[in-house]
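About this split. The held-out portion is used to measure sequence recovery: a designer receives only the C-alpha coordinates and must propose an amino acid at every position. Recovery is the fraction of positions where the proposal matches the reference. Here is one held-out target exactly as it appears in the evaluation file.
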Protein backbone atom coordinates (compact mmCIF):
# COMPACT_ATOMS: atom_id res chain seq x y z
CA UNK A 1 0.00 0.00 0.00
CA UNK A 2 1.33 3.40 -0.97
CA UNK A 3 2.00 6.03 1.66
CA UNK A 4 1.71 9.80 1.70
CA UNK A 5 3.79 12.46 3.39
CA UNK A 6 1.28 12.62 6.25
CA UNK A 7 1.87 11.05 9.68
CA UNK A 8 -0.11 9.48 12.50
CA UNK A 9 1.21 10.24 15.98
CA UNK A 10 0.63 7.63 18.69
CA UNK A 11 1.69 8.16 22.29
CA UNK A 12 2.24 5.22 24.60
CA UNK A 13 3.23 3.17 21.54
CA UNK A 14 5.66 0.79 23.24
CA UNK A 15 3.03 -1.75 24.32
CA UNK A 16 -0.64 -2.66 24.43
CA UNK A 17 -3.23 -0.69 22.50
CA UNK A 18 -0.70 1.90 21.32
CA UNK A 19 1.63 -0.76 19.89
CA UNK A 20 -1.16 -2.51 18.01
CA UNK A 21 -2.65 0.77 16.83
CA UNK A 22 0.68 1.78 15.29
CA UNK A 23 0.78 -1.52 13.40
CA UNK A 24 -2.84 -1.15 12.29
CA UNK A 25 -2.29 2.34 10.85
CA UNK A 26 0.94 1.22 9.17
CA UNK A 27 -0.90 -1.69 7.56
CA UNK A 28 -3.12 0.95 5.94
CA UNK A 29 -0.17 2.82 4.54
CA UNK A 30 0.00 5.49 7.22
CA UNK A 31 3.39 6.83 8.28
CA UNK A 32 3.77 6.60 12.05
CA UNK A 33 5.42 8.68 14.74
CA UNK A 34 5.63 6.38 17.78
CA UNK A 35 6.22 7.96 21.19
CA UNK A 36 7.09 6.22 24.47
CA UNK A 37 9.80 5.91 27.13
CA UNK A 38 11.21 2.49 26.16
CA UNK A 39 13.49 2.68 23.16
CA UNK A 40 13.92 -1.09 22.84
CA UNK A 41 10.15 -1.58 22.53
CA UNK A 42 9.87 1.18 19.95
CA UNK A 43 12.73 -0.29 17.94
CA UNK A 44 10.94 -3.65 18.02
CA UNK A 45 7.76 -1.94 16.83
CA UNK A 46 9.63 -0.27 13.97
CA UNK A 47 11.10 -3.61 12.93
CA UNK A 48 7.72 -5.30 13.06
CA UNK A 49 6.09 -2.56 10.99
CA UNK A 50 8.80 -2.95 8.34
CA UNK A 51 7.61 -6.53 7.90
CA UNK A 52 3.99 -5.40 7.61
CA UNK A 53 4.56 -2.54 5.17
CA UNK A 54 8.09 -1.64 4.16
CA UNK A 55 6.91 1.53 2.42
CA UNK A 56 5.80 3.41 5.52
CA UNK A 57 8.07 5.73 7.42
CA UNK A 58 8.32 5.09 11.16
CA UNK A 59 9.73 7.82 13.39
CA UNK A 60 10.40 6.98 17.03
CA UNK A 61 10.62 9.52 19.83
CA UNK A 62 11.78 8.63 23.32
CA UNK A 63 9.94 10.78 25.84
CA UNK A 64 8.59 10.64 29.39
CA UNK A 65 5.25 12.39 29.00
CA UNK A 66 4.74 12.62 32.76
CA UNK A 67 7.32 15.43 32.66
CA UNK A 68 5.65 18.68 31.47
CA UNK A 69 8.81 20.09 29.90
CA UNK A 70 9.20 16.96 27.74
CA UNK A 71 5.61 17.22 26.53
CA UNK A 72 6.14 20.71 25.11
CA UNK A 73 9.57 19.97 23.67
CA UNK A 74 8.25 16.79 22.04
CA UNK A 75 5.45 18.66 20.28
CA UNK A 76 7.86 21.37 19.17
CA UNK A 77 10.14 18.70 17.67
CA UNK A 78 7.31 17.53 15.39
CA UNK A 79 6.43 20.86 13.80
CA UNK A 80 8.14 19.81 10.56
CA UNK A 81 5.77 16.88 10.04
CA UNK A 82 2.30 16.98 8.48
CA UNK A 83 0.26 15.23 11.19
CA UNK A 84 -2.98 13.80 9.87
CA UNK A 85 -4.04 12.01 13.07
CA UNK A 86 -2.99 12.35 16.70
CA UNK A 87 -3.78 9.48 19.08
CA UNK A 88 -3.33 10.26 22.79
CA UNK A 89 -2.99 6.73 24.15
CA UNK A 90 -0.33 7.13 26.87
CA UNK A 91 -1.68 6.64 30.37
CA UNK A 92 -1.91 4.22 33.26
CA UNK A 93 -4.32 3.22 36.01
CA UNK A 94 -4.43 2.69 39.74
CA UNK A 95 -6.44 0.33 41.92
CA UNK A 96 -6.66 1.53 45.50
CA UNK A 97 -9.03 3.21 47.89
CA UNK A 98 -8.62 6.97 48.05
CA UNK A 99 -7.50 6.71 51.68
CA UNK A 100 -4.71 4.28 50.82
CA UNK A 101 -3.57 5.49 47.41
CA UNK A 102 0.05 6.44 46.77
CA UNK A 103 -0.02 10.16 46.07
CA UNK A 104 3.28 10.14 44.18
CA UNK A 105 1.79 7.61 41.75
CA UNK A 106 -1.48 9.55 41.55
CA UNK A 107 0.30 12.81 40.77
CA UNK A 108 2.26 11.12 37.98
CA UNK A 109 -0.95 9.53 36.68
CA UNK A 110 -2.65 12.92 36.52
CA UNK A 111 0.28 14.46 34.66
CA UNK A 112 0.12 11.68 32.07
CA UNK A 113 -3.61 10.92 31.82
CA UNK A 114 -4.79 14.53 32.02
CA UNK A 115 -2.08 17.15 31.62
CA UNK A 116 -0.08 15.68 28.74
CA UNK A 117 -3.28 14.75 26.89
CA UNK A 118 -4.67 18.26 27.33
CA UNK A 119 -1.47 19.95 26.20
CA UNK A 120 -1.15 17.77 23.10
CA UNK A 121 -4.84 18.15 22.28
CA UNK A 122 -4.69 21.92 22.64
CA UNK A 123 -1.56 22.34 20.54
CA UNK A 124 -2.78 19.95 17.84
CA UNK A 125 -6.24 21.52 17.62
CA UNK A 126 -4.71 25.00 17.47
CA UNK A 127 -2.47 23.99 14.56
CA UNK A 128 -4.79 21.67 12.62
CA UNK A 129 -8.42 22.65 13.30
CA UNK A 130 -8.87 23.94 9.76
CA UNK A 131 -7.05 21.11 7.99
CA UNK A 132 -9.40 18.68 6.18
CA UNK A 133 -9.15 15.01 7.12
CA UNK A 134 -7.48 15.51 10.48
CA UNK A 135 -8.50 13.68 13.63
CA UNK A 136 -7.67 13.75 17.33
CA UNK A 137 -8.43 10.47 19.11
CA UNK A 138 -8.13 10.39 22.89
CA UNK A 139 -8.14 7.08 24.75
CA UNK A 140 -10.42 7.10 27.78
CA UNK A 141 -11.85 4.01 29.49
CA UNK A 142 -15.09 2.30 30.40
CA UNK A 143 -14.13 3.83 33.73
CA UNK A 144 -14.45 7.21 32.03
CA UNK A 145 -18.22 6.72 31.92
CA UNK A 146 -18.89 4.46 34.94
CA UNK A 147 -17.26 4.78 38.37
CA UNK A 148 -15.50 1.52 39.20
CA UNK A 149 -15.05 0.44 42.85
CA UNK A 150 -11.50 0.75 44.16
CA UNK A 151 -10.51 2.83 41.12
CA UNK A 152 -12.24 6.12 41.91
CA UNK A 153 -9.27 8.37 41.22
CA UNK A 154 -8.34 6.60 38.00
CA UNK A 155 -11.95 6.82 36.83
CA UNK A 156 -12.01 10.52 37.65
CA UNK A 157 -8.98 11.04 35.40
CA UNK A 158 -10.74 9.20 32.59
CA UNK A 159 -14.04 11.03 33.17
CA UNK A 160 -11.95 14.11 32.46
CA UNK A 161 -10.69 12.61 29.19
CA UNK A 162 -14.22 11.66 28.11
CA UNK A 163 -15.79 14.99 29.06
CA UNK A 164 -12.93 17.03 27.63
CA UNK A 165 -12.97 15.20 24.30
CA UNK A 166 -16.75 15.16 23.96
CA UNK A 167 -16.86 18.88 24.77
CA UNK A 168 -14.10 19.54 22.25
CA UNK A 169 -16.06 17.62 19.62
CA UNK A 170 -19.06 19.90 20.24
CA UNK A 171 -16.83 22.96 20.12
CA UNK A 172 -15.17 21.99 16.84
CA UNK A 173 -18.52 21.29 15.18
CA UNK A 174 -19.90 24.63 16.37
CA UNK A 175 -17.02 26.47 14.70
CA UNK A 176 -17.28 24.37 11.51
CA UNK A 177 -13.74 23.12 12.02
CA UNK A 178 -12.35 20.48 9.69
CA UNK A 179 -10.68 18.50 12.48
CA UNK A 180 -12.72 15.85 14.31
CA UNK A 181 -12.22 15.00 18.01
CA UNK A 182 -13.09 11.46 19.10
CA UNK A 183 -12.84 9.38 22.27
CA UNK A 184 -12.31 5.62 22.58
CA UNK A 185 -13.38 3.96 25.84
CA UNK A 186 -12.04 0.39 26.26
CA UNK A 187 -13.10 -2.01 28.98
CA UNK A 188 -10.76 -4.70 30.32
CA UNK A 189 -7.97 -5.19 27.77
CA UNK A 190 -5.05 -7.57 28.11
CA UNK A 191 -2.12 -5.18 28.36
CA UNK A 192 0.39 -4.09 30.99
CA UNK A 193 -2.41 -2.06 32.56
CA UNK A 194 -3.22 -4.69 35.20
CA UNK A 195 0.34 -4.96 36.48
CA UNK A 196 0.86 -1.21 36.66
CA UNK A 197 -2.54 -0.42 38.19
CA UNK A 198 -2.11 -3.05 40.90
CA UNK A 199 1.65 -2.66 41.43
CA UNK A 200 2.27 -6.35 40.72
CA UNK A 201 4.66 -8.26 38.46
CA UNK A 202 2.12 -10.72 37.07
CA UNK A 203 -1.57 -10.31 36.33
CA UNK A 204 -3.79 -13.06 34.96
CA UNK A 205 -6.67 -11.61 32.95
CA UNK A 206 -8.27 -15.06 32.55
CA UNK A 207 -8.54 -15.48 36.31
CA UNK A 208 -9.47 -11.91 37.21
CA UNK A 209 -11.79 -10.92 34.36
CA UNK A 210 -12.61 -14.00 32.30
CA UNK A 211 -13.91 -11.72 29.53
CA UNK A 212 -11.64 -9.11 28.04
CA UNK A 213 -10.35 -7.81 24.72
CA UNK A 214 -6.88 -8.13 23.27
CA UNK A 215 -4.87 -5.06 22.28
CA UNK A 216 -5.31 -6.02 18.64
CA UNK A 217 -9.08 -6.10 19.03
CA UNK A 218 -9.04 -2.65 20.60
CA UNK A 219 -6.86 -1.33 17.77
CA UNK A 220 -9.46 -2.69 15.34
CA UNK A 221 -12.20 -0.87 17.27
CA UNK A 222 -10.13 2.31 17.19
CA UNK A 223 -9.92 2.08 13.40
CA UNK A 224 -13.69 1.64 13.21
CA UNK A 225 -14.04 4.85 15.22
CA UNK A 226 -11.46 6.52 12.99
CA UNK A 227 -13.40 5.56 9.85
CA UNK A 228 -16.77 6.70 11.26
CA UNK A 229 -18.43 10.08 11.59
CA UNK A 230 -19.21 9.40 15.25
CA UNK A 231 -17.43 10.99 18.21
CA UNK A 232 -17.49 8.13 20.73
CA UNK A 233 -16.44 4.49 20.57
CA UNK A 234 -17.34 2.58 23.74
CA UNK A 235 -17.07 -0.93 25.07
CA UNK A 236 -20.01 -1.99 27.25
CA UNK A 237 -18.48 -3.15 30.56
CA UNK A 238 -21.12 -5.87 30.97
CA UNK A 239 -21.50 -7.29 27.45
CA UNK A 240 -18.13 -6.20 26.02
CA UNK A 241 -19.91 -5.14 22.83
CA UNK A 242 -18.45 -2.20 20.90
CA UNK A 243 -20.66 0.67 19.78
CA UNK A 244 -20.26 4.00 18.05
CA UNK A 245 -22.29 7.03 19.06
CA UNK A 246 -22.54 10.77 19.27
CA UNK A 247 -21.33 12.38 22.54
CA UNK A 248 -22.85 10.84 25.67
CA UNK A 249 -22.62 13.59 28.28
CA UNK A 250 -25.27 16.30 28.41
CA UNK A 251 -24.10 19.43 26.63
CA UNK A 252 -25.60 22.84 27.45
CA UNK A 253 -24.86 24.28 24.04
CA UNK A 254 -28.27 25.89 23.59
CA UNK A 255 -28.98 26.89 27.18
CA UNK A 256 -30.30 30.40 27.75
CA UNK A 257 -28.21 30.52 30.92
CA UNK A 258 -24.78 30.21 29.31
CA UNK A 259 -22.25 32.98 29.77
CA UNK A 260 -22.72 35.67 27.17
CA UNK A 261 -19.63 36.19 25.03
CA UNK A 262 -18.86 39.83 24.36
CA UNK A 263 -16.58 40.63 21.44
CA UNK A 264 -14.37 43.55 22.27
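Reference sequence for scoring:
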Amino acid sequence: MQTSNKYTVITGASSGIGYETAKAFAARGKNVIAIARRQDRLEALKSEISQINSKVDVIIRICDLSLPQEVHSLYDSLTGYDIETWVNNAGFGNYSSVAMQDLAKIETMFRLNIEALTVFSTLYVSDYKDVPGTQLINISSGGGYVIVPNAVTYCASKFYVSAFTEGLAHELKAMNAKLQAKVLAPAATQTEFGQVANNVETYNYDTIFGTYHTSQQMADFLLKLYESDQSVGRIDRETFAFSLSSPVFQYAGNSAHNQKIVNE
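Annotator remark: The chain has a mean pLDDT of 93.
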